[in-house]
Amino acid sequence: MSVTALPALLAALDSLETTLKLAEALATGGRSIDLEGLDAEVTALCAAALSLPAAEQAEAGWALRRLHGRVERLQRLV
Fold it and tell me: Which parts of the chain fold into alpha helices (H)?
């Protein structure tokens, strides 16, 4: 595993969370939100987390759980 794998994964998770925050704000304002493709992106991020060394998976797991909460909030709005 690359030395940069965990930081890159955390950056990707943070980027997706920022996108979901924006989508949540738009949905709260009454805009229509298309979640197509979200499953595939989250699946890829989960696979990347599983490919990390065990010692790094816990840190990725926290970020994935935070992202999961954001997805659940957004799904309730759409």
Answer: 5-28, 38-50, 54-77
